[in-house]
Amino acid sequence: MANLKIKVGTLQLKNPVMTASGTFGYGTEYSDFMDISRIGGIVVKGTTLRDRQGNQYPRMAETPSGMLNAVGLQNKGMEYFINHIYPTVKNIDTNILVNLSGSTIEDYIEGAERLNELEKIPGIELNISCPNVKEGGMAFGTSCLSAAQVVKAVRRVYKNDIMVKLSPNVTDISEIALAVEAEGADSVSLINTLLGMAINSETRKPVLSTITGGLSGPAVKPIALRMVWQVAQAVKIPVVGMGGIMNATDAIEFILAGASAIQVGTANFIDPTVTIKVLDGINDYLERHKFSSVSDIIGAMEI
Amino acid sequence: MKKFMLDLIIKENVQLSNQYALLILTSSDKLPEMLPGQFAEVRVDGSSEVFLRRAISINYVDYSKNELWLLIQVVGEGTKRLAALKSAESVNLLLPLGNSFSIPSNKDSKVLLIGGGVGVAPLLFLGDFLKSKGIEVNFLLGARSKADLLQMSEFERFGTVYTTTEDGSHGEKGYVTQHSLLRESKFDHIYTCGPTPMMKAVAAYAHKTNTNCEVSLENTMACGFGVCLCCVTDTVDGHLCVCTEGPVFNITKLKWQI
């Protein structure tokens, strides 16, 4: 058994396999299928200060090797999370991170302040990259100035780990990564979904109620891998890679590109046990290549 | 109910027509308990066009033969591949998913199960279940023409079957909601599954006649167990996932304009 332990920012992960926000609910939805405490971390569904109904149906379109979604951060709000979800998820023996989103900087600050109260939440994933909301979300993550402003404001009030989730819908993702690093982010995670759209040619109507939505799945993997590599070159803080990871080989590619940990997203919908397969597969790879620790292969792509 | 991911084996693929196939699946292990109205998420392998699982209603479960039946209508690449599965091939399924139809506690309840097209699928299992509880079952099944009326002999095992076809080739001509049965009889419970316009017309009838009515929705979904939040329907309690809060909803909960 190789050593799979890894430190990401201030987080101690038992292994580098995490789940991406919005694809793993609050973890408990998967407990019939697998032992959820085996994975390194769970990033819970995007949470906003106040409850959100999200966008109108239809919110999903299947595309070649992927899917578009336009959920729009449907969630029951921070108060509900604290009173009804936290009491259950705090007992899961892994790192539970809350994906925090907001329409204004004040929302982010207030949300982060509330999360300070929760002893068993070791960090937040700051979502400045949701493409499916009209206000906030991706708007913050597509300019260095606004990305830096949000991180700076949250850093001032939040005492635990801040992982900043970056948008790929930018000209140069490394610049954004450097801007959030400079304001005290502990790590960055990438990529959020790529903005896309689908049209039904028979009805001549858009498939999604919002016309555009976020593309995920294996279709985005080469782009995600390239961006993780670029960002890992640019910043000193750890990078958490995601985008179309379907198996251990995909996960290892991200680690070789420079990711300290990875998040499995859309694949959870197709195989609810995929995280365990990725985890076991990473261990098999390390043993087969005679690496004693997963940290030995971070950024180990040979050029 | 506990959910499972299982590899089941195709025992038989009965081609009902070039558009419909009945997959009879089995397993060396005992199949888990399932309830009428629930569904399975069926994995489709071997195509990059078909990325997600397909949500398919549980058509029937024969526990004595350890058989699960899935009725497949070919509508796209995914269902085309499912309908082409051959005996002894393995299929990966998540099940049982979703809620189920409510079963009346009063055995003397008059119940009517209204299905249209491939939407008849869950009503067979429901008919069996109701009959086993000692409730007399009436089916009202509608289709475009006689060739699209599926599993008629199976439905007749569990109750009285009334039909409508749009071309008049079987039963009364017209839509299910035009059938004389609805004018002549009064029911306590109506259960319906089929195309949305049909279910809305049934719901309007139930609303007008003050009849308890449950509908089974079929919104597109990615996961099938409440995490992707893609399959929501608008209800009096806000956006709810069809996969976990449904697929069966009482019409009083939906915001349908009926």
What does this structure look like?
The complex is a heterodimer of chains A (303) and B (258). The mean pLDDT of chain A is 97. Chain A starts with 5 loop residues before the first strand and ends in a 15-residue tail after the last helix. Helix content of chain A is 32%, strand content 21%. By secondary structure, chain A is an alpha/beta fold. Chain A has an 8-stranded parallel barrel with strand order 3-4-7-8-9-10-15-16, surrounded by 6 helices. Chain A contains 9 helices and 16 strands. In chain A, 58% of the residues are buried. In chain A, β12 and β13 (205-206) form a beta hairpin. Chain B is α/β, with parallel strands linked by helices and 258 residues long. In chain B, 16% of the residues lie in helices and 34% in strands. A 7-stranded antiparallel sheet of chain B has the order 4-3-7-1-2-6-5. In chain B, strands 11-10-9-8-12-13-16 form a 7-stranded mixed sheet, with helices on both faces. In chain B, a hairpin with a 2-residue loop joins β14 and β15 (238-241). Chain B is globular and about 50 Å long. The model of chain B has no long low-confidence stretch (mean pLDDT 97). Chains A and B meet through β5, β6 and α8 of A and β14 of B.
